[in-house]
From TrEMBL:
Pathway, per record: One-carbon metabolism; tetrahydrofolate interconversion
Protein name: Bifunctional protein FolD
Species the sequence originates in: Zoogloea oleivorans
Gene name of the encoded protein: folD
InterPro entries the record matches: Aminoacid_DH-like_N_sf, NAD(P)-bd_dom_sf, THF_DH/CycHdrlase, THF_DH/CycHdrlase_cat_dom, THF_DH/CycHdrlase_CS, THF_DH/CycHdrlase_NAD-bd_dom
GO-annotated cellular components: cytosol
Length: 285
């Protein structure tokens, strides 16, 4: 049996249609949702992602502003721009594309963003709020994964979930969200002894390692839900995930592809957070 494919493009299209309606209603009442994106340096992958984000905004009727800085930009200039955007009531979301050049202190840049406009959910205060179950912007990639699971009615209460990867932007918030939804969560990483022991008992396996085709079919429990968060560019220019799709799909029950899986959902959740932020700001006036 081969797994069913969880199509992130199709789910994104549906959700983005709903977001476009919300954005249009807000615009009609005088608050067009607006996302500001800051890109430092010329990393080609970052440029592609930022282009996808700006195009996604456009299509949903969300205004986007793009600010580009050279690789050797001064952190003070970028922090000055963030301060300006924080103070601008017409801007509802601020995203600083990561990774930043090495001479930047990533943490201090993320911390400079107003938590009301932190649509990435990377600010330490938003992370803390999320961990305590308070209202917060949820990081887009793990939030997109949760939406994918919800769309398929994957039952999480009591489920065994295994997350491979412990990054601040995917692994850790993913584990928090799955825990909050009632799953029993195991977070694996490069120091994990006998990784296969863990992955083979997962009802839900989330791969966020950053290594192409790392998760193979023999690591998957028959019928499991396999979520591939990886975006790796192969030498031939093709995109591939952290999961060896060909072998894993023969074992899994449900699997996300790359491209066309979690990636588009990440952008959809960014648009959702931006609309949400605009809605909150419209309610205040
Ligand atoms: N502050 C910040 N926020 C982010 O959300 C953020 C970031 N920095 N830095 C980099 C990662 C990566 N990321 C992706 C978003 C969409 C796709 C995406 O749309 N992928 C398409 C294919 C795109 C392609 O062809 O390259 C797909 O999987 O189908 C991929 C990756 C957001 N990130």
């Amino acid at each position: 049996m081969t797994a069913r494919i969880l199509d992130g493009n199709a789910l994104s299209a549906k959700l983005r249609g709903e977001l476009a309606e919300k954005a249009a209603a807000l615009t009609a009442r005088g608050t067009q949702p607006c996302l500001a994106v800051i890109l430092v340096g010329g990393d080609p992958a970052s440029a592609v992602y930022v282009r996808n984000k700006v195009a996604g905004c456009e299509k949903a009727g969300i205004k986007s502003l793009k600010f580009e800085y050279p690789q050797d930009a001064s952190p003070a200039d970028v922090l000055g721009k963030i301060a300006e955007l924080n103070a601008d009531p017409a801007v509802h979301g601020i995203l600083v594309q990561l990774p930043l050049p090495k001479h930047f202190d990533e943490k201090s840049v993320l911390e400079a963003i107003s938590i009301q406009k932190d649509v990435d959910g990377f600010h330490a205060e938003n992370v803390g709020r999320l961990s305590q179950g308070q209202e917060a912007f949820v990081p887009c990639t793990p939030n997109g994964v949760m939406e994918m699971l919800k769309s398929e009615n994957v039952s999480l209460r009591g489920a065994e979930a295994v997350v491979i990867g412990r990054s601040n932007i995917v692994g850790k918030p993913m584990a928090m969200l799955l825990t909050a939804a009632g799953a029993t969560v195991t977070v694996c990483h490069s120091g994990t002894r006998d990784l296969n022991f863990h992955t083979r008992r997962a009802d839900i396996l989330v791969a966020a390692i950053g290594k192409p085709k790392f998760v193979t079919g023999d690591m998957v429990m028959p019928g499991a839900v396999v979520i591939d968060v990886g975006i790796n560019r192969l030498p031939d220019g093709k995109l591939c995930g952290d999961v060896d799709f060909e072998s894993a799909k023969e074992v899994a029950g449900l699997i996300t592809p790359v491209p066309g899986g979690v990636g588009p959902m990440t952008i959809t959740m960014l648009l959702a957070n931006t609309v949400e932020s605009a809605q909150r700001s419209a309610q205040k006036t």
